Amino acid sequence: MRLNNRNKAGFYNFISTTILLIFVLGCGAFFMELFKFDFLGRGTTALLIIVPSIFGLIFYLRGRQIFEYDSDGEALNFKNRNVLFYEKAISDEFPKYKLISYEIIDALIFRKLYINISSKKNKIITLKYDVSYLSKKELKDLKFSLSKVIKENKENKREL
């Protein structure tokens, strides 16, 4: 099963650019208000910087916008990247039989996917992905596919 939200990259790019533009204009208006004009008064002037900063912080804390998942074949592929160049993209590929479990943490602002896989030395490695920007249907499909792989792994272990 293939799952991605690459088609929304333009929208996320537009949102991030808009937040950046509003922040820059807010800073300009703040300094103009502080040194040149006095329309808003002392208390509300700081809102010109605070409100866009909060929106930018929420956008940043939600994590990487683009998530790609592919379970076709014998391997699982995960890719997680930003629309802009904030952080390095995460890309992992491993055989299906190494998948042990998964967990989706749903907080107020963000959603994260934690995947536990087994290593060569029988240790458990936890991989983290941001899935905040997936729709409910995409998240449901992802859960179904991962549960199916885990179920197949448990059946194969019983046969051995």
Give a short synopsis of this structure.
The protein has 160 residues and is an alpha+beta fold. The protein has helices spanning 9-35, 42-45, 47-61, 136-159, and strands at 2-4, 66-70, 75-81, 90-95, 99-106, 111-118, 124-130. It has a single domain, classed as PH-domain like, CATH 2.30.29.
SSE sequence, one letter per element: EHHHEEEEEEH
Compute the gyration radius: what is it? 21 Å
Overall 3D form: elongated
Q: How many helices does DSSP assign?
A: 4
Task: Examine the coordinates and then state which fold CATH places here, giving the name of the CATH topology.
Answer: PH-domain like
Number of strands: 7
Strand order of the largest sheet: 1-2-3-4
Provide the CATH architecture. Answer: Roll
Alpha-beta content class:
alpha+beta
**How many distinct folded domains?**
1
Largest sheet: 4 strands, antiparallel
The helix content, as a percent range, equals: 40-55%
> Stretches where pLDDT falls below 50 for ≥5 residues?
none
CATH level-1 class: Mainly Beta
Mean pLDDT: 89
Estimate what percentage of residues fall within beta strands.
25-35%
Walk me through the structure.
The protein is of the alpha+beta class. It has one domain: PH-domain like. It is built from four helices and seven strands; from the N terminus they run E-H-H-H-E-E-E-E-E-E-H. Strands 1-2-3-4 form a four-stranded antiparallel β-sheet, with helices on one face. Strand 2 (66-70) and strand 3 (75-81) form a beta hairpin.
